[in-house]
Every structure is written in structure tokens, then in C-alpha cells.
Amino acid sequence: MQESWNPFKALTVTATLALSFGIVSGARAGEVSVAVAANFTAPMQEIAVAFEKDTGHKAVPSFGSTGQLYTQIKNGAPFEIFLAADDTTPAKLEQEGGTVAGSRFTYAIGTLVLWSAREGFVDDKGEVLKKGAFAHLSIADPAKAPYGAAAVETLKKLGLHDALAAKFVTGNNIAQAQQFVSTGNAELGFVALSQVYKEGRLTSGSGWIVPANLYEPILQDAVLLAKGKDSAAAAALLKYLREPKAAAIIKSYGYALK
């Protein structure tokens, strides 16, 4: 006798198959631990959400200055990918044998901005620096953070470094430098454009986008670290960073692409 169709039984079978498929997909997905330069915090958080949605893999970022992250990597931190704020630190790791050969590439080109949380405080030509009508100027530690080094280089080219040095408030990384300004502990500061910019405009306050000829290009390189050489999730993330969706996110924060 032919068994009649049972919608409840069919539903149960479908649910079982879906659950089984989910377990298989989950088994294939993995996590990747990523050391990320502080200036790239907001884009990376957005990319991580899209990456997990599109691939099933999960990116677990840790943020800090490039110098701090380099030290952590050298001390054995379990990072699989390094997204630096420069190209020299990943190259150094490459020379030291701490990366997978041929994996390094420029994922973003950064832009420096002089920014204040106050509307109208920073003019569009940076003349506020010459007037000196402020008590504190925030920068990231130039020994650890490429954006801090770019700030110092800019001030030297403008002939203002020595005159303003006594007003420096130095953050451990670019995130802290921006925090000093946003909380009012410094009236203005040099930060990464990506921290205060989205979709073609400043998200708050006032700023002067520093002309590119005042500092060396901030080429931000990504590299696969030795600990990630056998990680499918790490390989997937590096690939994803070069795809159109990630590229669009990166550009929306004011970065250029190589």
C-alpha cells in the first residue's frame, strides 16, 4: 500500500537536512585572529561582519599601534594575519622569516587629517596651526604609529614642529590620539581620516585634510603570518580584502587603493 504524503513528516525531514547541512558548513568555517592597526578599526569591524556573512568564517581582530602589534607578534601572540599601518613593519617581519612568502600586499593607502571635535575650529587650510591659539595638539607616538610619524613630518615641513612641540599630547596609538581630541583633552590633533570620515564627509567637528606632499605615502600592508599558513579562514580573509565589497568599505572611510 502506497504511503500518503505527510506534511509534518516532510517538514521534519527538511529540518533535519537543514540542520545537517548547517553542521557541515559550520565544520568547514573557521576563525582567524587578526592584528589590526588602530586607524583601521571601523573599516575592519564592518568588513568582519560582511566577511562572516559571505563566507561563514569569523575574523577576530585585535587593535593597537603597528609598533605594539609587531612586538606582540615577535613575542608569540597567536595572530595569523597582520594589517599594519605601514609597509615597512610587515616587510621587516617578512625579512625575519615570520610571514608566508609572497603574501604581502597593500590593502589601503591612508590619509592624515588635522581634526577638532569643535565645529569651525580647524579651517580648511590648516592655518590654525600657525596661529597657535590652542593649548594641546594630539598626535600618536611617532615611534610606534605611522600616522604619528606622518604628523611629525608634516609639522617639520611646515616649519612648525619646534614651536608646537611643547603642546603635544602623545597617544600610544592613533585611537588614543583621536580620543584625546574627542574628549576635549586636546583642542585638535592629527588623526587618520578614516576615524572621522564616512561616505564623503567628516562625521563630526572640523578638519583639514593634510596635503599628500607634506608626508610620505602611508601604504598600509597586509601579510599572512607564519601561524596562519595552514588556515583556510586566514586565506579567505586575505582574498576577501581584495574583493569589491571590502574595497568599497575601505574607500568609504577615506582610504585610497593601490
Description:
By secondary structure, the chain is of the alpha/beta class. Helices cover 39% and strands 22% of the residues. It has helices at residues 7-28, 41-55, 66-74, 88-95, 128-131, 146-157, 161-164, 174-182, 232-240, 244-252; strands at residues 31-37, 58-64, 81-83, 105-110, 112-116, 137-140, 168-171, 188-192, 197-198, 201-202, 206-209, 218-224. Strand 1, helix 2 (41-55) and strand 2 (58-64) form a beta-alpha-beta unit. Helix 2 (41-55) runs antiparallel to helix 10. The longest helix has 22 residues, at 7-28.
- CATH class designation of the largest domain: Alpha Beta
CA radius of gyration is: 23 Å
- Given the C-alpha coordinates, what overall shape results? globular
Give a count of the beta strands, DSSP E runs of length 2 or more. Answer: 12
Brief overview:
The protein is built from 10 helices and 12 strands.
